Amino acid sequence: MKEYKLITKILIFILILMIGSSFIVGMFFVTGIWLPDDNSSYLDNNQIHITETPKPSITEIKLKYFENCTKESSDPFLYPITKDEGLDQDYVPKVIPTNLTGGKEVTESIIPYLKKLFQKAKSEGINLQIISGYRSYQTQENIFNSYVNSELNANPYLGYEDAVIKANIYSAKPGHSEHQLGTTVDIKCVDCTAFTFSEKNIEVYNFLEENANNFGFVISYPENTTEITGYKYEPWHIRYIGTELSLKYKKKNADKEIKQPLQKFLIDTCKTGNYG
């Protein structure tokens, strides 16, 4: 009889130990003290849930695009180029032939959108031709100097500095041309003289005004913005900034008699990080 009581006490003691251990382990799970080392799962209502890979935050997305706002970026397609802010001499993007009427070279990333723009124009009976595409720093330097010399030749009494100022109204100094990005083109009609306001060219400019934004392009230097940009109106000059931003730009300027120049739009966008 004594042996039976002893065995009973031992069994009760073991049972108490088991219940206590279970309680302690359960508390560890509930409080989160004891979780798997990799924290890849947790208990909730007796179910195991695997944590999902976190999505990029809004801040991370903004930082990604912010890199494109700086000239130090490998792809500074949002960099606001002005008369004061420009690209370094050694910035040379990777460009390829457009294989469109007029030829020229641009960055590969914009070609699909440029082709769609040309196709849209053709569907409306307008035949576009590229006048200018990518220009290196050195090429822009040669072009600008030729315009300065033209101003000097046209007016022998004009000083060199004044000739530079006059040329800089319609031509950018080296490093300050959007063409160096490789994402900018000048457009005309196939049978038209470049950079003129002939009837057929005006038809092209009106088409670009209405449609370029739908394909990621913006007219950089709108009408009546010379006091802001320092450049004359150039309806033939379009720069790619992506469809999301180009449509935002179009909406922003929809009811404005004088549109915001692209450089100002990009400065504000890059400063605030409001890309959508």
If you had to describe this structure to a student in words, what would you say it looks like?
This protein has 9 helices and 8 strands. The strands form 3 sheets. Strands 5-6-8-7 form a 4-stranded antiparallel β-sheet. Strands 1-2 form a two-stranded antiparallel ribbon. The chain has a two-stranded antiparallel sheet with strand order 3-4. The chain folds into 2 domains: 2-50, no CATH class; 58-135 and 177-272, Muramoyl-pentapeptide Carboxypeptidase, domain 2. The chain has helices at 2-31, 58-67, 111-123, 137-154, 160-167, 199-211, 226-229, 243-252, 262-272, and strands at residues 41-44, 47-50, 95-97, 105-107, 128-132, 184-189, 217-221, 234-240. By secondary structure, it is an alpha+beta fold.
Question: What does this entry show, briefly?
Answer:
The chain is of the alpha+beta class. Helices cover 42% and strands 13% of the residues. The protein folds into 2 domains: 2-50, no CATH class; 58-135 and 177-272, Muramoyl-pentapeptide Carboxypeptidase, domain 2.
Give me the secondary-structure topology.
Layout: H1 2-31, E1 41-44, E2 47-50, H2 58-67, E3 95-97, E4 105-107, H3 111-123, E5 128-132, H4 137-154, H5 160-167, E6 184-189, H6 199-211, E7 217-221, H7 226-229, E8 234-240, H8 243-252, H9 262-272
Antiparallel strand pairs: 1-2, 3-4, 5-6, 6-8, 7-8
